[in-house]
Amino acid sequence: MTSTRRWWALGALVLSLLTFGFDATILNVALPNLATALDAGTAELQWMVDAYVLVLAGLLLPAGALGDRFGRKRFLLLGLALFAGASVLASYASDAGTVIAARGLMAVGAAILIPVTAAVVPTLFPPAERTKAIAYLAIGLGAGVPLGPIIGGYLLEHFWWGSVFLVNVPVAALAMVAVAALVPESRDPSPRRIDVVGGLLSVVGLVLFVYAVIAAPDQGWTSARVVASGIAGLVLLAAFVGWERRTADPMIDLRLFGKPRFLWGSVAATVASFGMFGLLFVLPLYLQAVRGDDAMTTGVKLLPMMAGLIVGARASEWIGARLGLRTTVAAGLAILAAGLALGAATRVDTGYAFVAGWLAVIGLGMGLTMAPAMDAVLAELPPERSGSGAALTMALRQVGAALGVALLGSIGSAVYTGQLDRTAGLPPEAAEASRDSVAGAVEVAARLGDAALAADARSAFASAMSVVLVACAVVTAIGAIGVLAGLRRARPATAAERVDVAA
């Protein structure tokens, strides 16, 4: 394949990821509209979000392995078709249950797109160009963070609620045409037998564990359902590890974790996802409930983070070539930690210029971290097994993101309710709504004409956000130290070593 055609093929892959990227955030904008139009309660709205997360987490590993076996281009087209079809189903749903089912089907498509897209890169690009290619993938995936609220806000202002799903269809259709025309087929030339037992153990184990993590903030970390699901998930995942180490044809070769570049590249990506999703859990609420921005304006105000991500991802190739993987990834995590720590100084009346500044720093750190970390992972994989290896890293990132939202959400909620002082004299329902979220408190305050309650809730949430961002900064800084120590003597795998892992 010519150099020009390779880069056009990469454009098709970026478009595929963009389809997934902005859908990840666009739904949050539409939830209030869905609640009204479909008469959906809080539990149903939560399942519209959680069904997607659970299916995505559960299917990443088998999707990557099956893409290696049956053909990555074929699987990309299947993933895009599923995503587009499910989007049409969600757009014209007449009840909440149909939207939940459609979101689960969309997650099946996303579970195919994420690892298989990354797996195609090593088959297209030599090592000298791979870092730049992965940087563009990182930009495509990160673009969804601000684009989701911007596009969603615009569509909801001008069209009906189903348009936030229907917008996926032309993007996915264009991506399908581009993939069909530009991306060559690639697969494992000597595929192993399908690991049915390993696939079932990984899917059920990850779904149960991630469900426990998602449910814990609402039901309590010690509730019977959360504890039972969490323990069952961990037991099944332990059984999965044991099976993969014994079976002759494992779905995932766990010897990869003995390779420092794969291990610490995966750790860096997981830690960065933990911090990023923790930030995205609190920042939109700060901008909307505390600062009074609408969803579209919130998306626009997230653009500095996107700008920093583009700069960091593009610079990572140049910096990595001169300073090496270890220094580049550790510096990226350190910059990310610094941006999160700066964000912790944000208060109710902080000007947006300061917020834009630390968002740009966070984006810069993410860009410097994610592209070289993923390059390190792919460098340790033989091209024929790149799908299963990429899926393993993506699954770890998904679990890290879920843990980030759950743990940090619990911490933030505890700080918020602990500092909310003006609910004692409120009617029981109003007090409960105020303690439940800052958005609820602001709504109650507007209904009662209680400006003091609104000010108290905004101040309490700003304090909660500061604690969450400090926690994110600490975890990210520990990740930077781990990368510095773990990659001290790491080197890329030779071709012979990559073949040995595949054997």
Summarize this structure briefly:
The chain has 503 residues and is mainly α. It has 20 helices and no strands. It has three domains: 1-189, MFS general substrate transporter like domains (Growth Hormone, Chain: A), CATH 1.20.1250; 193-249; 257-503, Up-down Bundle (Growth Hormone, Chain: A), CATH 1.20.1250.
Poorly predicted runs of 5 or more residues: 495-503
How much is the average pLDDT?
83
Query: How many β-strand stretches?
Result: 0
* Percent of residues in β-strands: under 5%
Domains (count): 3
CATH class placement of the largest domain: Mainly Alpha
Largest sheet: none
Backbone shape: globular
Structural class, by secondary structure, is mainly alpha
User: How far apart lie the N and C ends?
Assistant: 27 Å
CATH domain fold name of the largest domain: Growth Hormone, Chain: A
What would you give as the CATH superfamily of the largest domain?
A: MFS general substrate transporter like domains
The portion of residues assigned to helices is: over 70%
Order of helices and strands: HHHHHHHHHHHHHHHHHHHH
Radius of gyration: 22 Å
CATH architecture of the largest domain: Up-down Bundle
Tally of helical runs: 20
